[in-house]
Amino acid sequence: MAKKTVASLQTSSKRLTKAIKMVKSPKSGSYTFVESVMPPEMVNDWLKK
To answer: Is the dihedral of CA 28, 33, 37, 42 positive or negative?
Structure first.
């Protein structure tokens, strides 16, 4: 499964990271991309799900 942190975003005083991962659909077998913006500390936990 491909996974990559794409960009670091800054808004006011908080640092945020946008993470994108590829997820395989169990029905069709095709891949879709799931995006999320979160604090950098939470990226690894999110990618492991």
So the answer is: positive
| Helix (H/G/I), strand (E/B), else coil: 13 | coil
Tell me the whole-structure pTM to 2 decimals. 0.60
Alpha-carbon distances, residue 14 vs 6, 36, 39, 41, 45 (angstroms) = 17, 16, 8, 12, 19
pLDDT of residue 21: 93
Q: Split the chain (49 residues) into runs of 10 and give each run's mean pLDDT.
A: 59 79 92 92 90
Give the closest residue to 16 by CA, choosing from 25, 24, 7: 7
Helix residue spans in 1-49 (DSSP H) = 43-48
